[in-house]
Amino acid sequence: MTKRQTRVRTGTWWLWLMAAIWVVALYLNFIYTPDAKYLLSSERIFYVHMGSATAMTFVYGITFVASIGYLWRRRLAWDRWAAASAEVGTLLTTMVLVSGIIWGRTAWGSWWTWDPTITTTLILWVLFLGYLLLRDWTDDRERRARYASVLAIVAFFLVPLDYYAVYFLKSIHPAVITTHGVNLAPSMVLAMLVSMVAFMFLAAAWILIRLRLLAAQDYVQEIQDRVRTPLDSM
Amino acid sequence: MSAVAVAKRLGERLVLRDVTLAVPAGSVVVVLGPNGSGKSTLLKLAAGLWAPSRGRLERFGQVVGTEATDPRVGYLGHRSFLYGALSGLDNLTFYARLYGVPRPRERAARLLAEVGLRRFQHEPVRRYSRGMEQRAALARAFVAHPQLLLLDEPYTGLDVGATGLLDQWIRRTTAAGGAVLLITHHLDEAARMGDRVGILWRGRLEDPPVTRDGPGGFREQVARTYEARFHGSGPSGA
Amino acid sequence: MGRKYGAILLKDLQLEIRSKETWVAMVAFAFMVALVFGIAVNPVRVRLAPVFPGVLWVAYLFAGMLGVGRGFEQEARDDALTGLLVAPGDRLAIFLAKLTVAFVFMFTMELLVLPFMVVLLGEPMPGGILPLLAATLALGTVGFVGVGTLFAAMAANTRAGSVLLPVLLVPFSVPVLILATEATAGILGHVAPAVDPWPWLHALMAYDVVFLGLPLVLYEFIWEV
Q1: Checking phi first, is residue C14 left (phi over 0); if not, alpha (psi -120 to 50) or beta?
Q2: Tens digits of per-residue pLDDT, B128-172?
């Protein structure tokens, strides 16, 4: 019998660390940093935006690596990593989009612009909603893992291409907003960095919690499969 | 065909464990087991649809890997593998062509006549009755004169005539030096057709198989062994 | 390899001649997009010519999603794909054959629908550009069909695959949509400022290479039953 790899052992000490970092991050975000010159306090949503965007990149990286890992080793543990990180990634993308839309409204006066970065993020969001749907609608556990891995790998190559396609489109047509240089004060840079770390921790926590649940789900499924075997014979 | 200590893992589940089995030329080997015992998995491995997770599988002396196809293998699965919009003749012609059979259309027509579908050979398979479709599927599996037949519950839903026909074709194959691996959960079919019967239970194959040389009636022996596995030993390996 | 490829190709064409499922569905769909668009956007108030390339490609890509999915539904219905996998010869032949069929159907549909689109949307199509336009259609179609075939094979084995397929394919159509639309606009040549179609065509070729290559590497993982 193969060794079980379903248990995900993690202590709780780092959750306390995360809580501490979040307290610091929120302090820096809302109290320590001054208002921005023109954007005033609306600037503060930027920390949420950057934090979730960084964590999102990191988390999708995990999805990609885990998907390759699954196709290579064929262990469901890899697939659970891919699934958990994709779910958290989708959630983070939602946060990026929502915070971006709100910020765009206050900063630029329009809810949405077809800027390459924004458009690519939206496509990424649709892509991973599709990924989650594919997982949900594939009944066979092993097949689900395989299909999802293939999709994640292809998606990884698509994202930069999407970006450049939109980029070329926008650079040829005159666009209202092309670049938005925000010169940050040192205190703001600090707040941004801490915010990024805080979001990374949050993402990690989510992923680990999801991993445990997914492992438990797979384990229950396996027990059900075993119990069912002799009953419906003949 | 032979399998040595073959195991297959699907997800975290070990569907087959160390299955060792030989299907020598000129004989019918039956694997008998309840649903979910890993029978179909075994057959899919033998067909080269899957690669074994462990162990070694050979056909005609060649190791079966991930991408193993062989024109000498005939495979009859649960479903017909036929296209509903095409006529029976077109379907069989297509498969004959796929297997490189010379004069595919004539071969297709002859087989259809043999399974009693001559009158319907130009009808689209979509309009066939269940039994007719199965006869056509049967013809499909035999389209390229297979020397290794892999049959997955082939008798399910066949009427008396078609059952007799299949029996006859299986015997004809073995008489010509071919080998047959038949998978079923019906004791009667196993006892009627098998030269050896192996019992598959939770991914493990009873070793050695029941043979016709053993003492006592073949059917009784198979039944006894099967019962012993099924009720006697309980949840083995769990 | 060659025999398997040829046999499957022939079979799919035969199947299409008998059932007419795929191309009727595709052509009807593309035609309806043009019709609905023409009615919804008041052609008196809005000049349709500048948006013509965009509407054209939207119609093509959505019709293409319909067509590419059909190809595998037929294989999945009675598990015929398993029959193909067991049959002798390289499995690459199956994928290439399905790819070719998808391309041929979609490209034929595009050529059939083009005149309707031109007439309905009042496109002042200049003569002499047809070869380059056809090349653009072909390039855009190749880019779409590569990933499309890969995902169609997956979708055929999932619940509600026909719903899933467009969701999966839309993000992958974005580059094709942008690159092919711009190239088409450049070729038709009545947008101001004028667009040079060649950079777009080159980018489209690059996309085609990547997204034909990836499915060829990954298709084996879909095939396992």
Answers
A1: alpha
A2: 998 899 999 999 999 999 999 999 999 888 888 899 999 999 999
Residue corresponding to tokens 């006529």: B87
Position B75 pLDDT exceeds 90: yes
For B47, counting Cβ atoms within 10 Å of its Cβ (0-12 exposed, 13-18 middle, 19+ buried), the class is buried
Q: Please tell me which residue of chain C has the smallest CA distance to A135.
A: C158
Q: Give residues 147 to 186 of B whose Cβ lies within 8 Å of A.
A: 185
Residue of B nearest to A222 (CA): B13
Would you say domain B1-72+146-238 falls under CATH 3.40.50.410?
Answer: no
Query: Which residues from C are below 8 Å from A when comparing CB atoms?
Result: 147, 150-151, 154, 157-161, 164, 167-168, 170-172, 174-175, 178-179, 182, 195, 199-200, 203, 207, 210-211, 214-215, 218, 221-222, 224
| Nearest CA-CA distance, residue A71 and chain C, Å | 8
Residue A166, H or E segment: helix A141-172
Please judge whether B202 and A141 are an interchain contact, meaning their C-beta atoms are less than 8 angstroms apart.
no
* Closest Cα in chain C to A172: C195
With beta carbons less than 8 A apart as the criterion, state whether B41 and B10 touch.
yes
Q: For residue C201, how far is the Cα from the chain centroid?
A: 17
The distance of B51 to chain C (nearest Cα, Å) reads 9
- What is the ipTM score, two decimals? 0.89
Q: Which of chain C's residues have a Cβ under 8 Å away from the Cβ of B82? A: 78, 80
Structure tokens at B64: 């079966």
